[in-house]
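Quarterly update from the structural biology core.
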Amino acid sequence: MAQRAVWLISREPGTPFCGTVRFSRRYPTVEKRAKVFNGASYVPIPEDGPFLKALLFELRLLDDEEDFIESRDSCSHINKTSVYGLLIGGGELWPVVAFLKNNMIYACVPLVEQTLSPHPPLISISGISQGFELLFGVQDFLSLSQKNDTELNTKLNQLPDLLLQACPFGTLLDANLQNSLDSINFASVTHSQKQPAWKVGTYKGKPQVSISITEKVKSMQYDKQDIADTWQVVGTVTCKCDLEGIMPNVTISLSLPTNGSPLQDILVHPCVTSLDSAILTSSSIDAMDDSAFSGPYKFPLTPPLESFNLCYYTSQVPVPPILGFYQMKEEEIQVKITVNLKLHESVKNNFEFCEAHIPFYNRGPITHVDYKVSFGQLEVFREKSSLVWIIGQKFPKSMEINLSGTVTFGAKSHEKQSFDEICIGGTAYLKLHFRILDYTLTGCYADQHSVQVFASGKPKISTHRKLISSDYYIWNSKAPAPVTYGSLLLLDLSFLQSPLPQLKKKQLHFKGIPIPEA
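Predicted structure, tokenized:
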């Protein structure tokens, strides 16, 4: 007996959508069980928007409805049970328990531990009665002593914490939510606050909370049909909470825009006191689908005095911020290079800095460069045998820039010139370095108004975001290159000129990443 998801929807006739989702909770662990039990008849839990539209249509609560719709209103579809089937994305989401009370729609989707085609008898599905019990319990909690919208909003804000106790992992333990609220309040009142061993002192001064989100994007691009480009975002949320009191409580929420990329592989600091199960089970190993949890990500915590990393996460963004190709051809003591870089239209075109570094390993010093650049400027470091293309703070309106030229080298000196065991012959790369302030690739942000602080004084809350490049390589498409699969780097040693026996006695390192011996 478990629930896949729960919704509270306020009915608002005359508005564009005729309603608003005031609260929703999904249980990913139950959703995985549903996928196994339901088999081919499985229909995933949709986002709030499609669910709202489908439910209001089925309940005949849309303003622009026709008088009669056969698929819904015929005699064969008379509903006497408050259990519905919603047509969503080409499939039917069933069973959906829903009822309207005081302009609030209470809805949930129970787990059915068998195939859904054909529909099994309702009496055989124990999760339906549990779903009704849960929804009636939520209804009683919201209607108790409710006088105005402010009190309703307060109770809606309490629901996430109450359901953690009353319905953990989608399984109902206590339908009386007031009991859960009383136990929380009783524990907070009776618990005597003592100085914890890990907290060496208390803060005295002006209260303030600072939240900084830093995302690092990695990429390996090849411009080859037989090798897939790879990229990944790794995020870190750093906090500093200057609050008075022995054990101040803070709740920090991370949110995503509608088209944001869900956060995965989330690791949290030990000071976080509780977590939604959806946060714990979101993994990059699983294939992305419509049921992926997209926030908000709430972190109740008791912060330490010093600055700390609240959480780390990864994300599978659809495209890298900058796409490009790099071509290099050798001609005796010269090389001809061609570079094309294109900023994706969804990325903020406002850099703190943006540069492309083009090193030439295992060669002599640069003696001459003949080049043409469509944007920015090129700096030549002759002794280091490298070029730096300074792109600046913005890409042009076309979002695309090009560099081409011929580089001539002098005699090679083993004492001064850089040597690399990977970049031999035509194997070469371009490395991008950039930083964008007040921006994240996933869209993740911390809303100042969503930060809840339970301590004396009203704190000043500040939030910051930035995107930084990290190991952002574009390889010469005219030669072999190291290949990445996820986080594993596989090296094709066929292009190395050194014999393999000489390499077995030492471990190769590619830009700080250890590569296993051949």
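The radius of gyration is 29 Å.
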